[in-house]
From TrEMBL:
Transmembrane segments: none annotated. NCBIfam families: aroE, PRK00258.1-2. PANTHER family: BIFUNCTIONAL 3-DEHYDROQUINATE DEHYDRATASE_SHIKIMATE DEHYDROGENASE, CHLOROPLASTIC (PTHR21089:SF1), SHIKIMATE DEHYDROGENASE (PTHR21089). It comes from Aromatoleum buckelii. Homodimer. Residues 8-90 form the Shikimate dehydrogenase substrate binding N-terminal domain. It comes from the Bacteria. It catalyses: shikimate + NADP(+) = 3-dehydroshikimate + NADPH + H(+). Residues 118-197 form the Quinate/shikimate 5-dehydrogenase/glutamyl-tRNA reductase domain. Pathway: Metabolic intermediate biosynthesis; chorismate biosynthesis; chorismate from D-erythrose 4-phosphate and phosphoenolpyruvate: step 4/7. Shikimate binds at residues 16-18, 63, 88, 103, 221, 250. This is Shikimate dehydrogenase (NADP(+)).
Length: 279
């Protein structure tokens, strides 16, 4: 029997956990598929996708740095991909290439797992204005938080992002500012969607940002306590989470789109955590 082929494409790609995650989803659900990692040259994304599709590929996950190129490539896309302006999931069908963005839904599902209350009515602070922040905005706004504040090192980018998304949720107080402007404010959920943790740094935040019982969430994963999470711990924040759950949840959302079945993520996440702890 020939297996349906899927792949994750990026540059670099050897570090990707997606093949292991999808192999486990397939085993668990009994779906007959293969999933590989494809390294595309920085100027060769389109060609690599086309080659994989012509060879019978059914779908792909897209990772750094190709999510914007993937958005430009697709013939049709989901509203959440259009809002994000970025695509992390491709599905190849008879009527062309469909693009989706499952990062935001993955973030949301993992936040819900980590938070002991609904997001509705919460004061959310989203740090960063890059691709990850863009992907998270629409799903977060749909939860009807009391407020959503976008803060970024380059303040103009935060303002532009807030302006682009305000019409999606006119009843949510959506504002934008720089890190220093956060002085004196408090939040129930603080999400680090900056790339600072990749450089082993934390965004330069004023003290006292966390309300009682707040959650500190870093989208970065695989580095143990990031400087952002360590700073939150020093501020007395007891609810802290990294982005490993988001990674597994966004993968599950892609799997659902391709195969019509939602895998159980809890066991896969636990196994991945054990594996990372042993490395
Ligand atoms: P981008 O490169 O698109 O965005 C970078 C953002 O980080 C910008 O807002 C930039 O600010 C800010 N930034 C970079 N360095 C610093 C710093 N030292 N201090 C403060 N702000 C900084 O990256 P992505 O949005 O794609 O990724 C962001 C993070 O999210 C990464 O850590 C990535 O690993 C993680 N991620 C996790 C996923 C998961 O499944 N868990 C999925 C996707 C992303 P400025 O505009 O001023 O340059």
């Amino acid at each position: 029997m020939t297996l349906d082929r899927y792949a994750v494409i990026g540059n670099p790609i050897s570090h990707s956990r997606s093949p292991a995650i999808h192999a486990e989803f397939a085993r668990q659900t009994g779906e007959q598929l293969s999933y590989e990692a494809l390294l595309a040259p920085l100027d060769g994304f389109r060609d690599a996708v086309e080659r994989f599709r012509r060879a019978g590929g059914r779908g792909m996950n897209v990772t750094v740095p190709f999510k914007l190129e993937a958005f430009a490539l697709v013939e049709r896309c989901s509203p959440r991909a259009r809002a994000a302006g970025a695509v992390n999931t491709l599905a190849f069908g008879p009527d062309g290439i469909f693009g989706d963005n499952t990062d935001g839904a993955g973030l949301l599902r993992d936040l819900v797992h980590n938070l002991d209350r609904p997001l509705e009515g919460q004061r959310i602070l989203l740090l960063g204005a890059g691709g990850a922040a863009r992907g998270g905005l629409l799903p977060l706004l749909a939860e009807r938080p009391a407020s959503l504040t976008l803060a970024n090192r380059s303040v103009a980018k935060a303002h532009a992002l807030a302006a682009a998304f305000r019409s999606h949720a006119p009843d949510v107080a959506l504002d934008a500012c720089g890190f220093i402007d956060l002085t004196g404010r408090a939040f129930d959920v603080v999400i680090n969607a900056t790339a600072a943790s990749l450089a082993n740094e934390a965004p330069q935040l004023p003290p006292g940002l966390y309300a009682a019982n707040a959650l500190a969430y870093d989208m970065m994963y695989g580095r143990g306590d990031t400087p952002f999470l360590a700073a939150a711990r020093n501020d007395g924040v007891t609810q802290r989470a990294d982005g490993l759950g988001m990674l597994v949840e966004q993968a599950a959302e892609s799997f659902l789109l391709w195969r019509g079945v939602r895998p159980d993520t809890a066991a896969v996440l636990a196994a991945l955590r054990r594996q990372l702890a042993g490395e």
